[in-house]
Amino acid sequence: MAWADFNGSGATEPLLGAWDDAERKWFPRREWRAVAAALPWVPVAFPSHAAYGRADMDAILAGAPAKPRETLVPVAASMVFLNRGDHFSPSELPQEAQASSAHAVASADLDGDGHLDLVLAQNDFHLDPESTRQDAGLGCVLLGDGTGSFSPIGAARSGLSIPAQGRSIALADFDADGRIDMAVGVHEAETRLLHNRNVRPGILVSNAVVGSRLRWRLGTKGGPAIEVRAGNGSNGQDSLHPVLSGVPPGATVEALHPHAPKAPKP
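The structure assignment produced for this chain is given below.
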């Protein structure tokens, strides 16, 4: 990927390239019309599709008025970044999450095992003219094991099967049965409501404060931290009455507000 203010407008323009094994060169990924519209010297130096098709990245960038910065992007995948305290550790999601683009992601303990899981809303049909639409996803539920690894479960088991363009996810206990349900917003289609049926009920926390973190605690053992957010992914909003799942008998709810005053030292 090369980028610079190529046309002097004050905006940074990226140019993406892909490696060609036969030619042993980098070639631009976008077709002539799209690149010519963004980089004004391209239609002058390469006035035809044939001339542009023979030009590699070095030839195209040779005419740039500003020297671009470049970087190699070795991974193109949907990933999670695990907070290790002083750094983030990247981890690729399973293949089912890579089948199509994901516009929204939400996390919760969906199966009540005490570990956070992920749910993704997938697909995008409205791409640039030379790209194939991304329609291989149904939405994806990934069960976490508490170590940062996630395993997919199929649509028949999860109940999440949306071959359309998923755009947003909102988690809430819609029927007040102590289980986390979800609503999935779909572009140009009806919103889907999925009812969680097969999980042991958890604890519903009423009127939680945005920005606070909640977890259950039993002695030295604690459940996953649930952060109460104002907004979730793309146009989603989880309920402000979160559910703590997988709570063992006798556990209590622990709350931490980021702006709460610290207790004075003795």
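Interim note for the steering committee: Residues 1 and 72 are 6 Å apart (CA to CA). The mean pLDDT is 90.
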